[in-house]
Amino acid sequence: MNIPGAAAVAGTHRISSPAARINTALFIATAFSITAMPILGRIMMELDLTRTRLGVIAISSAAINDVVGWLLLALVTTLTVSDFVAGRFALRIAMVAAFGLISTMVVRPLLKKAIRKSRPRDFVTVFFLPVYFTYTGLRTSIGGLESADWGRCLAIVAAASLAKLAGGYMAARRSGLNHPESAIIAYMMNTRGLMELIVINVGLDLGVISPKVFTMLVIMAIVSTVITTPALRYYMPRAGLTASGVGIDGAARDARQRTRG
């Protein structure tokens, strides 16, 4: 996580106690570390990157990042509600472990039986997901940002983007990828979405981030996601890829077009 950058951002806001400042820094750092796997997958499908080597690397990394993000959210939330008291923290961890055990041993088998009889995923996607995005939008108040706040907002966007871009790029370079390929991996890992909104909504509900910081983080999530597709379109030709006719999917589509012709 980008703890130094998050701590610097948290330090610019008036927070009463050092413990509260640490909580804010931890939530902001967790938000900085998120990669949106569903949105990344959609972008990859649109650009025909799903079956390329870079696409496999990016979606695999995003999947691992998604798991780590949920774990970080659970850990940071537990630390926050326990006020960094060892006994309370241990109790919360035990409760989480009990919840996980019950969910795995009891709830999961029951849900499997229910899913076989219905299709709840379609209902969740069509109904609850738009409701959640609307709920987040209603909590976002861009008009509440003053002139000085926009400088802090720019700092949040820059810190979050640079942390993910630099980390993804350097890791790809160390793995043997060239400059354009590493840049593609970095920008794909910088994509954020639903998981980002969950983290910052939890932080706002717990009172560890202010409504202004919440709005800034929403803007950061939008900006970092919007720049992904243009950046990929810029670097893909330099990496020997194109937005059409890439990989197995593209080759199959081109073959069908030639057959029809």
Please report which band the strand proportion falls in: under 5%, 5-15%, 15-25%, 25-35%, 35-45% or over 45%: under 5%
Task: Tell me the number of structural domains.
Answer: 1
Radius of gyration: 21 Å
Per the CATH scheme, the topology name is Na+/H+ antiporter like fold
Please report the total strand number as a whole number: 0
Mean of pLDDT: 82
Distance between the termini: 52 Å
The low-pLDDT segments are 245-261
Task: Please estimate the helix content.
Answer: over 70%
CATH class term = Mainly Alpha
Supply the CATH architecture. Up-down Bundle
Give the helix/strand class: mainly alpha
For the sheet with most strands, the description reads: none
Structural notes for this entry:
With 261 residues, the chain is an all-alpha fold. Helix 3 (37-46) runs antiparallel to helix 4 (53-81). The longest helix has 32 residues, at 86-117. It has a single domain (3-68, 122-140, 148-254), classed as Up-down Bundle (Na+/H+ antiporter like fold). The protein contains 12 helices and no strands. The radius of gyration is 21 Å and the shape is globular.
Short description:
The protein is mostly helical and 261 residues long.
Which descriptors would you attach to this protein?
261 residues; mainly alpha; Na+/H+ antiporter like fold; globular; disordered C terminus
